Prior knowledge:
By secondary structure, this protein is of the alpha+beta class. The protein has one domain. It is built from 6 helices and 7 strands, in the order ααααβββαββββα. The protein has helices at residues 2-24, 49-52, 73-76, 81-91, 129-143, 193-210; strands at 98-104, 107-114, 117-125, 146-147, 158-160, 165-170, 173-178. It has a 7-stranded antiparallel beta sheet. The longest helix is centred in the first third of the chain and has 23 residues, at 2-24. The protein is globular.
Amino acid sequence: MRMIRATKNRNHAMVSLAVASLLLSGCAAAAGSTGRAETASAPPPPSSPAATHSGDPHAQTQSSAPQSPGPSEALKMICGKETKDDISSILALKQAPHTVDEWTDSTYTCTYHLAEGPLVISVKESPDPAPARKYFDALQDKLEAAPIKGLANLGFPAAQTPGGAVIFLKDSSTLYVNATGLPAAVGPQKVAPTDFAYQVATTILACWKEHH
């Protein structure tokens, strides 16, 4: 009985976080959708050692598909002003955190260098939903992540690990938020890394949904 009650309380807390994220998210300057990556007006950012060594799991599940021209505007949002502002608000930061981004193997990665440790957000862009689902399932198995069920998954395939990894699949995009490098209590609210990663993921999803 205690286990059932704890599970219900956990799900309720995650739904509350999702609602808070939807209210928090600011996407006025964002544009684009999460479909196939569009041609970028500028060349792809150079490979960054900081991003490469930040624990990005996509580097371990790369495909041999040709490199697409660059990330779409929607993908760039994970390293854009809106996401930086949201993270700053969640953590009560006085200024936006320093970030390093990278585009390789159809994966856009943004590493946030927080005072407490690295937060790595990445999106793997697949050609269409079918291979995207295959990639998501493989990543979920690799991370040994448990499915996020009920209202907490916002209607998308989603999974999480106890240590701070959260993944969502939307259309052809696999969103991964890796907060495993953060301490057990994150920010002024002292939330668990998984809850923090979940809140960051849902703010990004809210922007994507608004501009899809």
